[in-house]
Amino acid sequence: MPLDPPRLAVPGVLLTDLYQLTMLQGYVERDMLDTAVFEFFARQLPACRNFYLAAGLEQALDYLEQLHFAPAELDWLSGLGLFSPVFLDYLAGLRFSGEVQAMAEGTPFFADEPILRITAPLPEAQLVESRLINLLHFQTLIASKAARVVLAAPDKRLVDFGLRRAHGAEAGLLAARAGYLAGFHASATVLAGAQFGIPLAGTMAHSFVQAHLDEAEAFEHFAHSLPQSVVLLIDTYDTEAAAQKVVELAPRLAAAGIRIQGVRLDSGDLGAHARRVRGILDRGGLNGVTVFASGNLDEYLIHRLMVEGAPIDGFGVGTHLDTSSDVPALDCAYKLQEYAGQPRRKRSEGKATWPGRKQVWRRYDDAGHCCGDSLMLEGEAGEGLALIQPVMRQGRRLAPSPSLQAVREYTRRQLDSLPPALRDLEPAPGYPVTVSETLRELAERADRLVGRG
Amino acid sequence: MPLDPPRLAVPGVLLTDLYQLTMLQGYVERDMLDTAVFEFFARQLPACRNFYLAAGLEQALDYLEQLHFAPAELDWLSGLGLFSPVFLDYLAGLRFSGEVQAMAEGTPFFADEPILRITAPLPEAQLVESRLINLLHFQTLIASKAARVVLAAPDKRLVDFGLRRAHGAEAGLLAARAGYLAGFHASATVLAGAQFGIPLAGTMAHSFVQAHLDEAEAFEHFAHSLPQSVVLLIDTYDTEAAAQKVVELAPRLAAAGIRIQGVRLDSGDLGAHARRVRGILDRGGLNGVTVFASGNLDEYLIHRLMVEGAPIDGFGVGTHLDTSSDVPALDCAYKLQEYAGQPRRKRSEGKATWPGRKQVWRRYDDAGHCCGDSLMLEGEAGEGLALIQPVMRQGRRLAPSPSLQAVREYTRRQLDSLPPALRDLEPAPGYPVTVSETLRELAERADRLVGRG
């Protein structure tokens, strides 16, 4: 692999909400440059998620390290007529100089638990809100969905097929990353291989079969063209007839030294087709040829196929993974928790937050399963593991990021540590998260500070 | 505005599925370079969509015009060990040299109606599948959702607030475009202003209020900092108390020549708060101050607020717009319809397609409402307007693209031309789309060609 593989370009600092810039101008004008603490967290879990899986920190840190306004961006902003020359000068010199503390990617978390804290001068901490949420929300969303698929089919080969219906370029790319992190084995998205070293997989499309007048000829042609990876799509016209053609083709290919690795089903009753196709392949002596299924799959359909005992060796999951279709957005937020040494919190109806710098402590039972979390103030002595750890200081990473492979392995152990009920697709009883007395007292103090104690 | 405003970088050609490249190698090896015809269309409408709204053509044409493999991309592909030097040489010279025919952006369409046709040498037409779907699917998805919001609140100011929970960078940017095209008035996403000239809007965040110890001081400070656009967020602590503070602040600001334009509500029962806040403002002589609402809004909630007569002048719509949350993906496809002059179609269960090059004819009644479409073969004489028109030849646009303003205006007229039942949020009776006899005969011929007539 070359040293500098192709990457998706990082979008500039203008990928933000207008109000970040107008608020920043207000802060800068009044010299409100004291240290602010913001935390990113998600609110209540939807019924079809027993846990969230933290993801996206790596891209968030990249963003913070690269944050700056290019001359063309300042020039364009100047043309809006909203910003003063003094403020634009301030932006020209702005870099992210703060601290980040975070939960490791691949850690399960629950409602109200922060997974990232920014401690920085107020304008810096404010400016980064929109893109930090955009990055952390999406990968957490997809990793949380992918983990469910992985838990539903722990012994199956799982491949991300979702690029085409992912929401744009970056969604396709980062969904491949989030899926792989959560335990998927490969992605069809080539750029995900180039940028993240994710193993690539792919079979063939119906158009390849259709472009040939004869289906068997299409299979033979494909096998000769890509002898390393012969997986044949057999549902273009008649699945079982095509499986028979595969059986007839196999000896001719074997004579040429080519082994058929698998067949793919993509429509109809996948369980029924898989059983018939498995029978045809086995009777034809092709016991080693695997059956791979795709086509509108999600964790529920995969679970049903597994329960039925469908002879399927792997699944391609596309749309439902890359859009997290049953929960296409999480109720998450990035909120000011402290400014100039004083706790802050919002009290809007149904959206009140816990103020201050928080730590999440996680306890484990004798079986190694986590059994309860405590949300405490930083510095309070909790029990178990402290999940929020420093990762960036003065705008620079404290250590090189772990490899995606290492994150994936860590995630596997984290999923293993979940209590069995949480690993199930069915809604589990709520995981216990307690809030420390000190934190409750701080919330009252924060309210008194704004005259509502 | 400078001549060259900041833009999101276009992702490279590796944003594709691996199988496109492996199939291409097969085509090139066997000299299967004849003309192929692919069409992009969506299958059945979900119950909560009465029509789709075509969008994304502009980005699709950009992609086709810029398509090429850079040396670093070829180098990386070579390292995979899957591709022959001959094939990599072919890729080095590959450009899109074909034709595109398409429905104009902003045109409503229905199940099985193509909105884009590619006519090109098979490898070119095949390669572009993944990214073309990725681009057309997403903007069509969001424009179709946005149109519902626009139809639910035709006289209200509508602003896209969705960047943070959009699925990544490109989703945030292109959702702003699709929303604006469908009739939204502005977006909070700064890059959408820079790249597409979309009007920007924004108010303030809770953190701005929280960073001040006194809410009224925060309001006054914000107004002085951005006197052009004073919209105050009043739900951080107590909505009605904050509205009273706005009344008290107004004369002081007026003395400084600053007019408060509006207040924003973001939580609780928006209708009830709006009525109380409107009363407080009016009693305080602030009849001209508008009330803007946001917070988990979609077309149904907005419709309910409108029916209740809530005194709200505009809505910020975020997550539900940018993720099309009730339908986060469309069942759409890009399928081979003809190769080397012969019709092709897929017959997979539940996914059979109509072969050949198709035209969509739309008829209108005396009231100017469209009243029925005919799906016909190109060249058949239909009734009404032919919606599929040439836009690219030999890989180059036939004419400069219309401005986004012009597309938005066209879209407004198109939405006006929909029958009233289709403009409603409730499911409408199916819009009549007939399939011509000639097309049905071609489908039979395509089946006979592969021995299944």
From TrEMBL, chains A, B:
One of its GO terms (molecular function) is nicotinate phosphoribosyltransferase activity. GO terms for cellular component: cytosol. InterPro entries: Aldolase_TIM, N/Namide_PRibTrfase, NAPRTase_C, NAPRTase_N, Nic_PRibTrfase-Fam, Nic_PRibTrfase_pncB, Nicotinate_pribotase-like_C. Its EC number is 6.3.4.21. It catalyses: 5-phospho-alpha-D-ribose 1-diphosphate + nicotinate + ATP + H2O = nicotinate beta-D-ribonucleotide + ADP + phosphate + diphosphate. CDD domains: NAPRTase_A. Residues 14-136 form the Nicotinate phosphoribosyltransferase N-terminal domain. Residues 387-442 form the Nicotinate phosphoribosyltransferase C-terminal domain. NCBIfam families: NAPRTase_put (TIGR01513), PRK09243.1-3 (NF006696), PRK12484.1 (NF009131). This is Nicotinate phosphoribosyltransferase. The lineage of its organism: Bacteria, Pseudomonadati, Pseudomonadota, Gammaproteobacteria, Pseudomonadales.
